[in-house]
């Protein structure tokens, strides 16, 4: 009897090691797939892989099966496990999206015959309206910079470019000098999936960039990235976050502020100025119109206030 139990334990241990090895092999292949085929950004790749690693540990701990043996009920139990741990609906939806992408890859690479995710639905997440800055608040942020210093010129240019072009923070930090076409009034932006788009840039942003360029000191003569830190190296996303938040704090703005707030403000003010949603979609580089549609709610709020003001004027 002891010999039988011992052999069973050895078999279980052997299976666990074998299944873990199989998971690790396939997740490595999946990483290569989303990097080369899907052309995701490094940040997106790390996010996908972190989420997948958590799912892998759950499946191995609870069911001890390789990827090809994962079933719909196991995935639903994982979603329930996320819910019980207080994960937001938006986070649950993100986890499930990554799992579906992983099993689609297994199907495409003929490692499985059918998808276990087909009938697993994501929770409906509330679509919260983003904070938006007024033109006066943006001007107040710009007034916090000391334009007699190199840092002040750079930071002022960063805020102006983010607001007047609607760039993502990753697009801003990747912006190169040869992406500037000031003669034509455009900047070339490399967006998600290395997709390029041309975005109009106003005279205020052009003037601030040109002022900053007088102070720009790259560490190496071959450095073409536009915005640099005080060591002459490319800025990171975190550095840009800190610049924006510090300016907002100095301007006395109490809203939750990030570089993306300036992107939201750009899109909202474009709609309020008469641009249609398709134009805003193209300028923002959104692949799907549904991503841009969140701004129509903000635009309706603006229109409602205009109507209310008009009725108030009529009553006077």
> How large is the radius of gyration?
25 Å
Describe the largest sheet.
3 strands, antiparallel
Strand content: under 5%
Average pLDDT level:
85
Give the number of helices. Answer: 13
* Total count of strands: 3
Structural category is mainly alpha
What spatial form do the alpha-carbon principal axes imply? Answer: elongated
Strand order of the largest sheet: 1-2-3
Distance between the termini: 96 Å
Could you describe the 3D structure shown?
This protein has 316 residues and is mostly helical. 61% of the residues lie in helices and 4% in strands. The protein is built from 13 helices and 3 strands; from the N terminus they run αααααααβββαααααα. The chain has helices at residues 2-36, 42-62, 72-84, 89-108, 135-142, 150-165, 169-174, 203-213, 237-250, 259-272, 277-284, 289-292, 294-315; strands spanning 180-181, 186-190, 196-200. A 3-stranded antiparallel β-sheet has the order 1-2-3. Helix 1 packs antiparallel against helix 2 (42-62) and helix 6 crosses helix 10. The longest helix is centred in the first third of the chain and has 35 residues, at 2-36. The radius of gyration is 25 Å and the shape is elongated. It starts with a helix and ends with a helix.
């Amino acid at each position: 009897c002891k010999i039988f139990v011992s052999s069973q334990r050895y078999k279980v241990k052997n299976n666990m090691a074998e299944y873990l090895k199989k998971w690790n092999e396939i997740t490595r292949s999946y990483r290569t797939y989303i990097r080369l085929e899907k052309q995701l950004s490094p940040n997106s790749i790390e996010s996908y892989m972190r989420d997948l690693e958590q799912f892998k540990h759950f499946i191995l701990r609870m069911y001890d099966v390789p990827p090809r043996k994962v079933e719909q009920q196991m995935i639903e139990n994982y979603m329930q496990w996320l819910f019980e741990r207080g994960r937001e609906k938006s986070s649950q939806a993100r986890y499930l999206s990554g799992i579906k992408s992983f099993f689609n890859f297994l199907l495409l690479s003929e490692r499985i015959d059918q998808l276990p995710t087909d009938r697993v639905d994501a929770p409906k997440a509330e679509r919260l309206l983003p904070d938006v800055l007024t033109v006066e608040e943006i001007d107040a942020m710009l007034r916090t910079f000391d334009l007699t210093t190199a840092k002040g010129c750079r930071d002022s240019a960063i805020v102006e470019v983010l607001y007047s072009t609607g760039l993502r923070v990753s697009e801003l930090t990747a912006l190169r000098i040869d992406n500037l076409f000031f003669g034509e009034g455009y900047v070339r932006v490399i967006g998600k999936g290395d997709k390029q788009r041309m975005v109009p840039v106003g005279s205020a942003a052009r003037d601030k960039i040109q002022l900053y360029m007088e102070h720009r000191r790259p560490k190496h003569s071959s450095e073409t990235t536009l915005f640099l830190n005080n060591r002459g190296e490319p800025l990171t996303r975190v550095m840009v976050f800190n610049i924006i938040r510090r300016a907002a704090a100095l301007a006395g703005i109490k809203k939750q502020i990030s570089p993306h707030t300036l992107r939201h403000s750009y899109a909202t003010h474009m709609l309020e100025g008469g641009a249609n949603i398709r134009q805003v979609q193209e300028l923002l580089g959104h692949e799907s119109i549904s991503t841009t549609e969140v701004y129509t709610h903000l635009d309706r709020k603006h229109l409602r206030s205009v109507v209310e003001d008009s009725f108030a004027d009529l009553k006077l």
